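Hi, here's the filled form for the chain we discussed.

Project: internal
Contact: R.S.
Residues: 186
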Amino acid sequence: MKGLITINDPKSPISEAYRGIRTSIQFSNLDKKIKVINVTSSKEGEGKTTVLANLATTFANLEKKVLILDGDLRNPTIHRMFELSNVCGLTDVLLEEKSFEECVHCTEVKNLHVLTCGAMPPNPSEILSSKKMKEFITSLREYYDYIFIDAPPIGIVTDAGIISTYSDGCVFVVGSKQCDIEMAKI
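And the returned structure, exactly as it came back:
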């Protein structure tokens, strides 16, 4: 699994840093249960998918049931990171062409499941803001301890903002020496 240092080298300082972020997220939910976490960035190439996958892995390692959902319906990449098929996924579930059980993938990591994007739709914003999407996320809350949603960069399209309306928290990834400070402020 490419880019997953928490699996490939769990004793490295970088893996420890991911566990530190995990602890921060856990302690941030004392007053409100944080289950659905939106991960975005200001632009492409800042590492949001890598951060999301490694964070989700650290939560699964705690014996928590974790789902990674590829909410980037414009440029899905989760399937590549986990070397999974993207033949069916989120869009197929929402269109009721396939069931969730038919589309969700188990990974090598115990308790970690992945729902890829599936077919890329012509109207990503409308799908993500639909009542059906909100109901789907609500149904997933009952089964999973944590749901990590890989959202498109917030500085490029509105999709991450839409996803944030049914998320409990957001991780904003900023690439070192890559991000324009003004873009990050937006």
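Let me know if anything looks off before we file it.
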